[in-house]
Amino acid sequence: MTAELQKIKYQPKHKKYLFQSLFIILVVIAWEIFAWINPFHWPPARGGAAALNIFGYNISLNYSFLFPPPSAVFSKFVSVIAGEVIRDISGSLRRLIIAYLISIALAIPSGMLIAFFKKAENTIDVLVKILYPIPGIAWLPLAILWFGLGDMPIMFIIFTGAFFTVCINTAAAIKNIDPILLRAAKNLGAKGLNKFFKVIIPAAFPQLLTGLRIAWAYSWRSLAAAEMLIATYGLGFIIEYGRMVHDAAIVMCGMILIGVLGILVDKGIFGFIENLTIKRWGITITKA
């Protein structure tokens, strides 16, 4: 009986991962085929060159150069990037993790203040919502003036990309707790820290975790943008280096590395935290 239940429980997840893997493989195959076919001229021109007419202007394109196939991207990764990739990955992750953790350490308490205290909502919340729409990269000129060149301005940009998202989601997560749940906890005698840790945190955590995930994605974007402009190494620098040498394959190498690392952390760390809280607080997820 137990084996049957386990089979029922895990089979959909295995099917999901199998479907995702097959889809990625099909995308790569389609990309490989499409990259070698010139969509702007048929039959394909020699060397992949084509002339694209945009608003009356003829633009000469070397299609295979501008849109290299996966095989060319992998070859470029092995021949050009592989020797420095460990330094680039470790440098980017160091900047990212330090800035992200600092932003969480400051944003979660700030969000709680906004949720629990009216004066904080009338002051801190207003300032946060004014600054929130400003793109992180827009802070770069000020960051360079304040901190000079190096890692500090990059980490500051990452901080601004994550802080406001986590702060706003923390406040919203606490405010959106079902009042019936809070009244029930009060009637059962829950109060103070006991109410905070056993009622408020479990109820707010799903939305808070969503905010942390969104902030993680914003942090990657801020990191890549800042490294493209002022870094001398890192994943964003790989992308900028590819642009400087006019090699789209190198640009794609940097983009793919960022995507792969981002999804590994999302599924590995955030997925683990999600599963842990499901087991700890008995949260169930209903799937159609």
Protein architecture, described:
By secondary structure, this protein is mainly alpha-helical. It has a domain of 197 residues: MetI-like fold, CATH 1.10.3720.10. It has eleven helices and two strands. The chain has a two-stranded antiparallel sheet. A hairpin with a 2-residue loop joins β1 and β2. α3 crosses α11, α4 crosses α10 and α6 packs across α7. The longest helix is centred in the C-terminal third of the chain and has 39 residues. It is globular, with a radius of gyration of 24 Å.
Within the CATH hierarchy, at the fold level, what is the topology of the domain at 85-281? MetI-like fold
Helix share bin: over 70%
Terminal residue distance? 24 Å
DSSP summary, beta strand count: 2
| CATH architecture descriptor name of the domain at 85-281 | Orthogonal Bundle
Mean pLDDT: 80
Taken from the alpha-carbon principal axes, the silhouette is globular
Radius of gyration: 24 Å
Low-confidence spans: 1-11, 40-49, 56-60, 284-288
- Please identify the structural class as seen in this structure: mainly alpha
Biggest sheet descriptor: 2 strands, antiparallel
Q: Give the percentage of residues in beta strands.
A: under 5%
How many H/I helical runs?
Answer: 11
Specify the CATH homologous superfamily of the domain at 85-281.
MetI-like
How is the largest sheet built, in terms of strand order? 1-2
CATH class of the domain at 85-281: Mainly Alpha
What order do the SSEs take from the amino end to the carboxyl end, as H and E?
Answer: HEEHHHHHHHHHH
